[in-house]
Amino acid sequence: MAKILIVDDEVGIRELLSEILRDEGHDIILAENAAAARAARNAARPDLVLLDIWMPDTDGVSLLKEWSANGQLTMPVVMMSGHGTIDTAVEATRIGAMEFLEKPIALQKLLAAVKRGLARIKPAHTPSPLGLGAFARSAPLRDLKKRLEQMADKSRIILLRVGPGSLAELCARTLQRIGTPWLDLSLSAAPLELNTLEGARNGLLYVPELYYLSRPQQKNLVFAMDRLERHGHTLVVATEHGIDELIEHGWDERALTRLFEVSLAPPALGEIRDEIPEIASQILLHFVEAGEVPPRRLSSAALNALRNRNWSGGYAELKAAIKSLALGTLEEEIDMDEVAHLLVKTPTAALGLPLDLPLREAREIFERLYFEHHLQIDGSNMTRLAEKTGLERTHLYRKLKQLGISVGKRHDNGDG
């Protein structure tokens, strides 16, 4: 029969529900609080969860939000409470709960809810991209999420002032509502059309770095900015550069004034080093849930090694490293030796770069190292390389050819 996780801090209720459902032939897993529920959900992958709302560590609605944010709400969840309100029930249903049972739970209501939950057809599930909501146990990231949401509540345009170790993509994904489109305006220089904006209605428009947008892309961005309200879009852009630098680079001052009106400087990974183990663990869990990597877990030593690394490439670099580790490790647990192997094999732009060369020659060496590095960790996926580097595809191919990097056999993993 089915595997059912019962989460309730009252031992009497756990035992009663367990006895009833075992008599029905189900396998039962018990958890007395949210921490135990997280561990049980990850280990057992239950077919259905009965989740109490009021618990001593984290309330059930917050846990439901966490599962939804990190792509783990892959099973029906029935909420339970002896002190529930209509508002709480509505919120839980909006987040993704199947239904709400009021305590004391009548036997027939319980069995009917379980039957409905288990009868629900489960579509093929692809977890939503990770946002800051997936890191509910990190105080700095919770604070960052609140700031972003507060800004987005009053402004459709948010500029992220970033530097090395950027969390820009993670911030932008946080403001993308579940099930809505994501449109990266840096990936195409073709004129932006109204039907494209309409197709991305209520979605999020994103630019990873303003400095690298070509003139046609800058025009596309202004075109989209003028129509944000009409199409229900939120626009998130990021840059390491100030207004004066961007004007020198060819930007229109009026457009920049609009873009810089509401801005936020999120911390770099190096500033929240203690949060890296939590971030890395959630990234790995997300890859496993999406079926992109085999079931893997990071040892404490491996997490510490990741924490101590200088992630100058930011969230994107950390995410690529976690995926490479999960795919390249033969054992279920990823240990420190595997991380050390990755760090040794991963080239860095600074190491071995001759500093006594003319600037032009030194820059060419750096660019070759840079592109080879990202081609390696992204499996030669040109779409991801274009997104990561902020270069338009035609410009990217031309740049690789100039550097003598072969692109003839590069593939796009499904990108047309």
Structure commentary:
Pfam families: Response_reg (PF00072), Sigma54_activ_2 (PF14532). Keywords: ATP-binding, Nucleotide-binding, Phosphoprotein, Transcription, Transcription regulation, Two-component regulatory system. One of its GO terms (biological process) is phosphorelay signal transduction system. Residues 3-118 form the Response regulatory domain. Helices cover 48% and strands 12% of the residues. The chain has four domains: 2-120, Response regulator (Rossmann fold); 132-267, P-loop containing nucleotide triphosphate hydrolases (Rossmann fold); 270-343, Helicase, Ruva Protein, domain 3 (Orthogonal Bundle); 359-403. It starts with a strand and ends in a 14-residue tail after the last helix. Helix 8 links the parallel strand 7 (182-184) and strand 8 (204-207). The protein has 416 residues and is of the alpha/beta class.
